[in-house]
Design a protein that fits this description.
alpha/beta; uronate isomerase, domain 2, chain A; TIM Barrel; 4-stranded parallel beta sheet; 20 helices; glucuronate isomerase activity; Metal_Hydrolase; isomerase; Uronate isomerase; EC 5.3.1.12
Amino acid sequence: MKPFMDKDFLLSTDTARTLFHEIAEKMPVLDYHCHINPQEIAEDRKFENITQVWLGGDHYKWRQMRSNGVEEYYITGNAPDREKFQKWAETLEKAIGNPLYHWSHLELQRFFGYYGVLNGDTAQEVWDLCNAKLQEDSMSVRNLIRQSAVTLICTTDDPADDLKWHKAIAEDSSFEVQVLPAWRPDKAMNIEKPDYADYLDRLGKAAGIEIASFADLKAALRKRMDYFDSLGCRASDHALEYVMYVPETEETVEAVLAKRLAGERVTRQEELGFKTAFMTFVAAEYAQRGWAMQLHYGCKRDNNTSMYQLLGPDTGYDCINNYAPSSQMADFLNALNMASSLPKTIIYSLNPNDDEAIGSILGCFQNSDAIGKIQQGSAWWFNDNKTGMQKQMTSLANLGLLGNFIGMLTDSRSFLSYPRHEYFRRILCDLIGGWVENGEYPYDKKALTKMIKGISYNNAVNYFGFKLEEK
């Protein structure tokens, strides 16, 4: 029997252990997509207790607590933090096979030096240890980032944001880690939302343009892109129901937006046509700027209406959506390619059944503009577990070039989430190590070192064009 989560956790062969301990483990972290708050970095926040840093905003954990029958009072309610932590500890001991079990214990090991097991019985011990440790200066937000060997972070930011915290961080010579904005224009695209006109007013004020037409909207977005670019933005991100392609004439798109600004509701067909025009426009702008376009799709959001009305979005009530016509995604990329406006593109689906469709579409649009210009993103959200990562990387290897993969991201709101990169690298090394030991790839240390370093870090440095040195 192997020890619980020891130094060789998830590493089942000698080659896997060599690849991880000699190569992957020593690589820094580049977190090119997350949801952390740049203000907390700028102010170098310190957390009062482990509940604040672990359970605040973490809907992954909230879902599991609900599955364990925990009252909402102890999840998002006003229960004391100690009681919330107890309920989480009692839930965690049932989470066998769940990545939250592994992530939680990796975080306890790496940040708090705790190598025991968290459960209902040990909750007080862990609570006391973590809270004492959190009072140390080494556990401020900036020092948590430093401890994790992070070189660069891309947050997720609305076009109307002033980015003042990014500016403050960039101007602070005492913090060496780059914190860059990433462009997330969902609110500018989602014409069907009831507050859409109010949002366009806010965006227009940020850009200094009154938005009364689609032409105005494009002008405002260009101005804000220029501002983001001046602060180092190298990537956009889009949360889509699916990657649609329903092209309409410019006159029709203008008419649809005019209808919406007049207070009328748009039809589903009008919505899809508008969104197609929006995505076609912004993609061309990204291509001109050298930005990468991230497309996240396959999620059906806010399914529990009563809880959405109570708590709002991003609180643990989303699920996989199995409607995603790959033909429309291929048509969208083809239209951009025909217009010489296809940017570097990273495609993520929440539905693991889409892996092979994505893998086959990638190969249709690769060219010499960039190595691995069209990427399949890492196993996302409900798939960022051992099985999901193995499946995504195996599919990518079967249909493309795994060696060009840009690797892992945290997609997290927590400053303790960086061990997710370690978790990914252990799975990566075990997968490749198994192929080597099975005679499917030679034990070529030079080639394997380049590949593991690339997927762990260097490929992302080069793909996005960050001002970083390869390792």
